Amino acid sequence: MSRDVNLLVVHCSATPVTMDIGAKEIREWHTSSPRNWSDIGYHYVIRLDGKLEKGRPLYKSGAHARGYNKNSVGVCIVGGVDKNMKPENTMNKEQEKTLVNLIVELDWTFLDMEIKGHNELSSKACPSFDVQEWLDNLGYK
Question: What is the CATH number of domain 7-136?
Answer without folding.
Answer: 3.40.80.10
